[in-house]
Design goal:
By secondary structure, this protein is mostly helical. The chain is 58% helix and 10% strand. The strands form four sheets. Strands 2-3-10 form a three-stranded mixed beta sheet. It has a three-stranded antiparallel beta sheet with strand order 7-4-8. A hairpin with a 3-residue loop joins strand 5 and strand 6. It is globular, with a radius of gyration of 20 Å. The two termini are 24 Å apart.
Length: 353
């Protein structure tokens, strides 16, 4: 599945002075500054003779991808992803998302400048888990997940730009390409109050950009491996999308909460059985999605919707702009400037949905 991202704005002093959530914002500011301080310019790292050969190869690849992002995809040409940091951990941040026990709407948190988003990010896993426990005590369903990268929307370019990280630098080439293109897309257009719009747009740039790069520069084996992963990702989304629809229908019914809980448990068990069959019959036992299905709850389903539901609409919009990236970006930026309800209506109207 696609990696989920935390979008983080970095006018740090403004955030701290303008928001009452000082403890949360304080850990965000400290964590981000620590990450930035750990980053070193890629060109200086490549000049070090003792640099590990595998890391050298990945850094060189990242810079080729970075150049491709500018030259072909017309993504921002700035200092982002020209530095590298080893954080010594498996994730850049840990996100917390939550929904009602019998609903699929993400809880949102609102911040100055950044607007409202459907997650909270923590640089320390223990803090994320502690906050998740508070939300569970309120009766919410919660998911905590590691995030390998996040975007500062260009605000960090003054300090050297968003860095490459050990959390994703060793991804297969197609996934590494998609990661960089996705994060750079957040610097092109951003609607402060609309996670679904922002992430679906970036996911489209990620997919189409990675496919284009692989067609030109990757080996046949790399292209085939990426195509297989993409095919399974789409099958995963089709399966989970069907059960998300059935859960939404269940929650809308005029029946007791007890009846909804029982039916919900039955649907989740049915979904896991369908997944087991798909994995055994079509995937050769691939376990890549085992963790998702083991933890699946309302928060899991709601998060998937935020990152994929509008991607087909953006794909159609790109086609209607003649696959011209600058024209596409201009239209996305125009839509991002509209009020949220008008934005969605206009996007779907333009794409015929």
């Amino acid at each position: 599945m696609s990696v989920v991202k935390l979008v983080w704005l970095a006018p740090l002093a403004l955030l701290l002075s303008a928001c009452t959530q000082s403890a949360y914002l304080g850990q965000s500011v400290g964590g981000h500054l620590s990450l930035m301080a750990a980053a070193k310019p890629v060109d200086k790292l490549l000049a070090e003779p003792e640099l590990a050969a595998d890391l050298r190869e990945r850094l060189l690849l990242s810079q080729r991808l970075r150049d491709y992002a500018v030259d072909t995809l017309k993504l921002p040409d700035n200092d982002s992803y020209r530095r590298y940091a080893d954080l010594g951990r498996s994730a850049a941040v840990w996100n917390v998302v939550a929904t009602p026990e019998l609903g699929l709407t993400l809880k949102t948190w609102c911040f100055p400048v950044m607007g409202c988003v459907g997650y909270r990010g923590y640089f320390d896993r223990a803090e994320a888990d502690a906050y998740a426990a508070q939300l569970r005590a309120e009766g919410l369903e919660v998911l905590v997940y590691g995030v390998p990268a996040y975007s500062t929307l260009g605000w960090s370019n003054f300090f050297g730009g968003d860095p490459l990280l050990n959390t994703f630098i060793k991804y297969p080439s197609g996934e590494l390409a998609g990661m960089l293109f996705h994060e750079l897309a957040h610097q092109v257009a951003y609607a402060p109050d609309d996670t679904q719009f922002n992430e679906s747009f970036a996911t489209l740039v990620e997919r189409r950009g990675a496919e284009a790069w692989l067609r030109t520069y990757a080996s046949a084996a790399e292209r085939e491996a990426f195509a297989l992963r993409l095919q399974r990702r789409e099958q995963f989304r089709a399966l989970t999308g069907e059960y998300r629809r059935r859960l939404a229908e269940l929650y809308a019914q005029a029946i007791s909460d007890e009846a909804k809980r029982a039916a919900k448990a039955g649907l989740l068990e049915e979904m896991r059985q369908d997944y087991a069959r798909l994995k055994a019959e079509s995937w050769g036992g691939d376990t890549a999605y085992d963790g998702w299905f083991a933890r699946a709850n309302n928060a899991s389903f709601a998060l998937l919707a935020a990152y994929s539901d509008l991607t087909p609409a953006f794909d159609t919009l790109l086609a209607r702009q003649g696959q011209d990236w600058p024209r596409f970006y201009a239209e996305v930026k125009r839509l991002a400037a509209l009020p949220k309800t008008e934005r969605l209506s206009e996007l779907l109207k333009q794409t015929g949905d």
